[in-house]
């Protein structure tokens, strides 16, 4: 895995971290909610987004509890969930989303450093729209982030929720 220090040494720029839940402006509606507790990975996603002018808005939640509050309040267009969360695993959060009549149509992507076939199957059994292995290098991360934003924000037709 790569760290924030490696990236900032290569590209010394100011890193802007968008709309953390605690200080989010309620007038802005993020398109993608990223549920990720690793601050370094949040920084890398933000850096890749800003440095490469990736055209989608996003916000972070750190726990599944924060994510559910945010989802109910803001109704993001797509949710990206890390499997490993501090309060419970991403599969449990996915189950909550899929069991809610108001939320079940929101596309949910799961990403993880774990890509065991049993975990991938479990995620799909619970209704995940895609399971993605976390990239282990910066170029792959940028490519993934571009593809997610391009497909889900411009190509796919999403349900109104």
Description:
This protein is α/β, with parallel strands linked by helices and 161 residues long. It has a single domain (4-153), classed as Rossmann fold, CATH 3.40.50. It is 42% helix and 14% strand. It is built from six helices and five strands; from the N terminus they run αβαβαβαβαβα. The chain has a five-stranded parallel sheet, covered by helices on one side. Helix 2 crosses helix 6 (138-155). The model is unreliable at 4-30 (pLDDT under 50).
Mean pLDDT: 82
Strand order of the largest sheet: 2-1-3-4-5
Classify the fold: give the CATH topology.
Rossmann fold
CATH architecture: 3-Layer(aba) Sandwich
What is the domain total for the residues? 1
Radius of gyration from the alpha-carbon trace, in angstroms: 15 Å
Q: Determine the structural class based on helices, strands and strand pairing.
A: alpha/beta
Question: Short summary of the structure?
Answer:
This protein is an alpha/beta fold.
């Amino acid at each position: 895995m790569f760290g924030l220090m490696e990236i900032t040494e290569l590209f010394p720029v100011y890193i802007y971290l968008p709309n953390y839940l605690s200080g989010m402006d309620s007038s802005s509606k993020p398109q993608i909610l990223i549920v990720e507790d690793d601050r370094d990975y949040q920084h890398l996603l933000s850096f890749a987004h800003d440095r490469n002018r990736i055209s989608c808005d996003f916000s972070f939640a750190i726990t599944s509890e924060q994510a559910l509050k945010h989802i109910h309040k803001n109704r993001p267009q797509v949710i990206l969930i890390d499997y490993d969360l501090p309060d419970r695993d991403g599969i449990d959060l996915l189950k909550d989303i899929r069991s809610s009549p108001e939320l079940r149509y929101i596309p949910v992507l799961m990403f993880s450093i774990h890509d065991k076939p049993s975990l991938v199957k479990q995620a799909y059994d619970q209704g995940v729209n895609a399971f993605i292995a976390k990239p282990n290098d910066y170029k792959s991360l940028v490519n993934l982030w571009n593809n997610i934003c391009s497909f889900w924000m411009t190509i796919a037709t999403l349900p109104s929720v």
